[in-house]
Amino acid sequence: MARRGLALAGLALCGTSGVLLALNRFLGDRAVLGEGTSDFIAGHVWFWPVVTALLAATAVLGTCWLLAQGRAVALRRFTLLGGRRKALTNEAVAALTREVMGLPGVHDVRVRFTGTRSRPRVMLQILCHESADLGLLLTRIGEESLVRFREVIEMPDLHAVLRFRLVYQETRIA
Question: From residue 56, how far is each of 15, 41, 53 by CA, in Å?
Answer without folding.
Answer: 19, 19, 5
